Amino acid sequence: MSLPRALVVDDEPDIRELLELTLSRMDISCRSTANIDEARRVLNEDHFDLCLTDMRLPDGNGIELVEYIQRYFPNLPTAVITAHGNVESAVRALKAGAFDFVSKPVDLHILRDLAAAAIKSHPETLEPSGPTLLGDTAIMQETRATIAKLARSQAPVYICGESGTGKELAAAMIHHLSPRAEGPFIPVNCGAIPESLMESEFFGHRKGSFTGATTNKTGLFEAARGGTLFLDEVADLPQHMQVKLLRAIQEKAIRPIGEHREHPIDVRILSATHKDLETMVEASQFRQDLFYRINVITLKLPALRDRVDDIPLLATHFLRRLAETIGVSPAGLSDAAIARLRGYAFPGNVRELENILERATALCEHAQIEPNDLQLKETHAPDPTSITNLDLPLDPMLGHMERDTIEKALEQTRYNKTAAARLLGISFSALRYRLKKLGLD
Q1: Which of 48, 183, 321, 371 places its Cα 20 to 30 Å from the Cα of 291?
Q2: Considering the domain 128-300 in this protein, what is its CATH number?
């Protein structure tokens, strides 16, 4: 079996020699060039499994080479070497299709991790097994194709969409289709971690670094080494953690509490929220620099109402899975029940569909679920012209609406407060406060 081959493009002989030596010790055969024109010629003469290029070259910019490779050799992972702290160049390269980046002075640990991941990123080496987003509609087929393409990159992906559309499942798909599939996939709900514990949770701490630190603790970044860290509800991060997260992503290094030196990390970052981060950036509620760093590539998941033809398939899947869980034959759905589901707005999307079917299965007295078993309520947008018909004063009316909304969210999530907070679009602590205020705790 032949050795994997890498093309190194850099006009500094010392840098080329360092990169070649590092890669050769990984049993990667190297060929090097000093400029873009020569690199184009070599690419057309030989086969390569990785291209590593400097951003500043005598005859142009490294992004030009990234774009050339994307156009003519789309299966060749290309990584760029950027000047220290030049985040803008790194983001531009990733948006152009670069596999990853490494900053000068080159950290050889990071370079080796990058090269190993790149060599494993070819389509023929990726197994299409693992979690998947169900659906036969054109929009879902396009979404899965996009996910498969994103899986081959190391670029941060921002997954957006309404609550219940399957953002964590999409993140798991990206991980399992990626060269990091053998590493850990660690999802974390940013809104469920108490603010005082966030730094320790993310970066870890050393014994004795603060009161109560009786042992060393491994943080989430370290636990996800070689794999993927999925930051769900990233909009709930407080400002001070946004700063620390930005530095960790930019420097590819962390410093546990109580440590005096940084440790390189090998982690891919995926993030998601159902909130509008762009609006939060404009309102100075979320750091713009962090937004651009995690939003290198955007994956938008469609709402269930935009793919109603997938409802029968999803319903059959959920009913079969529910039946396997409780050890019975799966319930059926009458044509009238399917029609009723297709006509429903599904504000809670796929997660709400699953909850509705679970409740219907429990209430159904026959082998087939009928429309009445679904217990669906029509949701109508409020009519702004009918305010004169509302019961005033305002405060009691808003309190009643708040209580009703929270109770429905708790019902839909089977009284899982963390899931209910996510469905409502608020942090866990905010939900806890409201529950106490309304006497629902």
Answers
A1: 183
A2: 3.40.50.300
The answer to whether domain 5-124 has CATH 3.40.50.2300 is: yes
Phi/psi of residue 202, each to 5°? -80, -45
Three-class SS state of 100? strand
Instruction: Tell me the CA distances in angstroms from 308 to 128, 133, 143, 315, one per residue in order.
Output: 26, 15, 15, 11
**Amino acid, res. 379:** T
The alpha carbon of residue 228 and the mean position of all alpha carbons in its chain are separated, in whole angstroms, by 9
Asked, colleague to colleague, whether 5-124 and 128-300 share their fold, the answer is yes
Contact 339, 376 (CB under 8 A): no
Distance CA 293, CA 312 (A): 38
| Token code pair at residue 217 | 């603790």
SS3 251: helix
Q: What is the pLDDT of residues 35-93, one digit of tens each?
A: 999 999 999 989 999 999 999 999 988 999 999 998 889 889 999 998 866 777 888 88
pLDDT in tens, 212-266: 888 899 999 999 999 999 999 999 999 999 999 999 988 889 999 998 888 889 9
Query: CA-to-CA distance for 119 and 200, rounded, in angstroms?
Result: 33
Amino acid identity of 231?
Answer: L
Domains of the chain by residue range: 5-124, 128-300, 306-374, 386-437
Identify the architecture of domain 386-437 in CATH. Orthogonal Bundle (1.10)
β partners of residue 366: none
Q: What is the pTM of this model?
A: 0.71
